[in-house]
Fold this protein.
Amino acid sequence: MAAPKKGRRSPGGQGRPGRILALILIAMVALVGGMFASGNTTPRLGIDLAGGTSFTLEAKNQPGKPNAINTTNMNTAVGIINRRVNGLGVTEAEVQTQGANHIIVNIPKGTNAKQARQQVGTTAQLGFRPVLSTTPVDKSPQPSTSPSPSAKGKGDKGDKDGKGDKDKGGDKANPSGSATPTGTPTSKPQGRAVTDALKADSTPDPKATGKGKDGKDPKPSETPSGSPDAAALQKQLAELDCTTKEGMAKAREKAAGAAPKDTVVACKKDGTAKEILGPVAVEGTDVNGASAVFDSQRGQGWIVQLKFTSGGSKKFAAVTGKLAGQQPPQNQFAIVLDGEVVSDPSVSQSIAGGEAEISGSFTQQSAQDLANVLSFGALPLSFDVVTETTVTAALGGEQLHAGLLAGAIGLVLVIIYLVAYYRGLALVALASLAVSAVLTYTIMTLLGPAIGFALNLPAVCGAIVAIGITADSFIVYFERIRDEIRDGRSLRPAVERGWPRARRTILVSDFVSFLAAAVLFIVTVGKVQGFAFTLGLTTLLDVVVVFLFTKPLMTLLARRKFFAGGHPWSGLDPKRLGVKPPLRAARRRSSAPVDPKEA
């Protein structure tokens, strides 16, 4: 008869349970240490628990679009505003329509309310317009000589003095495009410059060379349709007030209401200049994405990198090629956002390739804000913030107290049941629940600053439901061990042989719970997603705890006399489990040799 192989383990056995326990304990220490190192020791709370700010937006009719306020545009606006707010790192914001022309935005406490207000109220109607004329707005008699921002293809480099090397990657954009403002007398009167620019813009073909439709020099009357003549533009520019908030708001509203083909006057966002701008050459819909990047290599500070669609790339290359070689400021194009000039970079060559970058006096916040609205697109409607209120957490606090009380009562009942029915095994279950609670709490706390996760009332309910899911996994495993003992096996083989059967049941049960949580998270919005997220997270942690803590701990305890010997308080007493003496023991007694004297 062949001898049994040495080192063979029973099915599902774990050779080194101590190492596995050490692994999960190290992970717990690392997570808790990271939580304290981050300075956040409590989970981020949602608006129903912590309070926050609520905005009410009212849609406005746009010029020439009397039927713009409809269900489709309102739903589109809700989606864009939601993505913008999420771009601020807020995942528990509530954005929903109210009535036919109102949108309610609720943002939890801890978010910059002023920044959020700008994001939700900005229409983000974007357009790239050529600059025809610019006049500095300065109380002092000296003209401003601050350099204009520059725009260039992504990756272009140049010398600090503004002279580029075409053989080494392209020219640097002219950094002094507005050093000689057209608001002061130059070699050409300003009115004449505007007239000439209007003539140039009247050419419908971007490849044209400045000639009129008949091949001759264009006439003054050949101005863009709907655009005023040079004298009217000069009058509008003179009347434009960019020194006060009221004046800039009025100018912004008028420029935002103009058609893309119109020539307009507008103020720069910082109020340092007012400009006459030609028709829109590239629209905001031609921008595929934008990001804020700190340029330390060239010393330009914060810049905004743009990516255009295929059609936008061709348009941008055409307009920059047309502006290149022009005299300042007509070698500049204005980036107009909601009727306000955000930046007016100069160009010295055609920018192709579908990528460009905007540099200027950007701070980190202003660069990120501009990239955010460009990335998520323009709202189909204009909105006014009609109300802004602070939401208190009084009602949510009461509901949280009631929910935690219910959870505590449920936990106590579970503990009583475990102790009464499983006795010593209840210690294993309670230790596993404690590990699961520590992991859940630390991960929720760390997810707050990491992805903007906020704990709301439904999420708390999900965590309470998870107590039952986790306890159910322990019960499945304990019952499998007891079944093996009833079959006549000792504890150590029972722990190992019962694990594969329990493992399959636990995985199937947790998979169903996780699938339900995933579907609920995908098909729902708002607070219900908090419930689904927490349920899915705790379900995954249940698998981790059972595999890396409960099973190794049972393997170690099976070597202890208290459990292996079937102590009445161990929960594994063979008598209490109804185990009958094994048949092989009875056979050994019946086949024992008989003493001749007794015979």
Notes: The mean pLDDT is 75. DSSP finds 16 helices and 14 strands in the chain. The radius of gyration is 36 Å. The first strand starts at residue 52 and ends at 60.
